Amino acid sequence: MPRVTIHEKAGYLSDAVFAASDGVVTTFAIVAGSAGASLDVGIVLILGFANLFADGFSMAAGNYLGVKSEIEYEKAKNQETDHEGLPLKHGIITFTAFNISGLIPLIPFLISTRSPFVLSTILVGLTLFVVGFLRTVYTRQRFVKSGLEMFTVGGLAAFVAFIVGYLVKGFLP
């Protein structure tokens, strides 16, 4: 059984961090854009779950094909490679991280709460900070800086989605 190299471990970490961040941010973008447009909770859930699974699968398939292409490139250059199962592992990690984190913004809309958007916003902020914090387990960076970095980047994306939803609503009949 081949050993997992430090480069492969970093690749798995990269997949997980990127997918978790993208999952929570893109799903929350649906939630924030819907809130900005004052859409019904049912529509938020339909759009959110459609995004969750379609985007999660798309990212996983893209990652699978990207890693497979790297391996095929190595083979074409006559370089030894023993990474046959690697593309599938990367795809599974991407899909799993995306869908677990992407479900978080939808939870408040699945339960009975007065302000699902506010609760979703809080959960997303905490999730982004935690993903940034967990990254430091491997990177050995300062956890507060890493958490705030992830929080800030994701927060800006969510803010843009809210504003777009609000603005587009103004153009609709």
TrEMBL record:
Membrane topology annotation: Multi-pass membrane protein
A single BP term in Gene Ontology: intracellular manganese ion homeostasis
Keywords, alphabetical: Membrane, Transmembrane, Transmembrane helix
Sequence intervals crossing the membrane: 12-35, 41-67, 88-111, 117-138, 150-168
Cellular-component GO terms for this entry: endomembrane system
PANTHER family, A to Z: FE(2+)/MN(2+) TRANSPORTER PCL1
Name of this protein: VIT family protein
Annotated organism of origin: Candidatus Woesebacteria bacterium GW2011_GWB1_39_10b
